[in-house]
Write a structure and sequence with these properties.
Layout lengths: L16 E5 L2 E5 L8 E7 L6 E7 L16 E9 L2 E8 L3 E7 L10 E3 L4 E8 L2 E7 L3
Length: 138
């Protein structure tokens, strides 16, 4: 078995977020202005990762052509609740948003704009309620 190493995915994959669903782990990372955006990776052992898709996989989902260099999608977070995957992030030209999918490989929904300030959004599910938090320094 390959030992754990840091970074867990070599290359340029900043701001990783991981969630566990049963024996499976799913990871997303920042992609800034790159399209397709927010890659989704799968692992069973937290060592070997395979990309299964992207959350932003249709040009119509987000106006990435309006993003400047080193802008775009920052610090996505992946969560799972009631059989559905959710990813929240901030895109500089769009604001905070949430996308969802039944299958982490996609297809993913169009982004739903969340009208809150701040960066680094996160999701918390409590029964039927969903809470979103941010670092409101913007």
């Amino acid at each position: 078995m390959k030992p754990y190493q840091n970074p867990i995915i070599p290359g340029f994959f900043p701001d990783p977020s991981i969630c566990r669903v049963g024996e499976d782990y799913y990871l997303v990372t920042s992609t800034f202005e790159v399209f397709p955006g927010i890659p989704v990776y799968h692992s069973r052992d937290l060592v070997n990762w395979t990309q299964t898709g992207n959350c932003i996989h249709r040009p119509s989902q987000l106006p990435m052509d309006k993003e400047d260099h080193n802008e775009g999608i920052w610090a996505p977070v992946i969560r799972h609740h009631n059989g559905r995957f959710y990813v929240t992030a901030k895109a500089k030209a769009f604001g905070n948003f949430i996308v969802s999918a039944e299958d982490p490989a996609g297809p993913w929904s169009d982004p739903v704009h969340v009208n809150i300030n701040g960066i680094d959004p996160d999701l918390l599910f409590d029964g039927d309620k969903c809470y979103i938090t941010t670092n409101d320094r913007c």
